[in-house]
Design goal:
With 142 residues, the protein is mainly alpha-helical. Helix content is 82%, strand content 0%. It contains 6 helices and no strands. Helix 2 runs antiparallel to helix 6, helix 3 packs antiparallel against helix 4 and helix 4 runs antiparallel to helix 6. It is elongated.
Length: 142
């Protein structure tokens, strides 16, 4: 098991799945609680996931020195704002503006449209975030 977690890509995918679960749990709960407002729930879920993702990526995936974590967090946060923008744009387009694109496949159930769009967006975001993290942020190994 330890050998698997020593593999950076495996660790990133494992913790990426956990981050996605954090994101989706917060987003789905807030979407229902906030009366189906995709943009607000996407932003709050992203902020929660960004903090969680930084902690696990810095500590377990990229195994960074403790020193300099503040600078890494700022870079990480700024990079994740880019993927937050992607998430918000996709939420706006597929849930608020054109829900019928996905809705036609799920009897125009807006909650299902939100779930499908969220999963698609998270897949794109996880892949993009790996390359951003690997190449630009977590370069200070222990």
């Amino acid at each position: 098991m330890k050998k698997l977690f020593n593999n950076e890509i495996f660790s990133y995918l494992f913790f990426g799945v956990l981050t996605t679960l954090v994101y989706l749990s917060v987003r789905f709960a807030l979407f229902e609680f906030l009366k189906q407002t995709a943009l607000h729930s996407a932003v709050i879920a992203n902020m929660t996931a960004i903090i969680f993702a930084f902690l696990v990526n810095d500590t377990f995936v990229f195994r960074q020195n403790k020193q300099g974590w503040q600078a890494r967090f700022v870079k990480f946060f700024l990079a994740r704002l880019g993927t937050l923008a992607l998430d918000v744009i996709l939420a706006y387009l597929f849930i608020d503006k054109y829900p019928q694109l996905i809705g036609q496949f799920v009897h125009h159930d807006l909650a299902m449209v939100n779930k499908i769009e969220s999963v698609i967006a998270q897949f794109l975001i996880v892949v993009g975030n790996y390359f951003i993290s690997k190449l630009l942020i977590f370069t200070n190994k222990k």
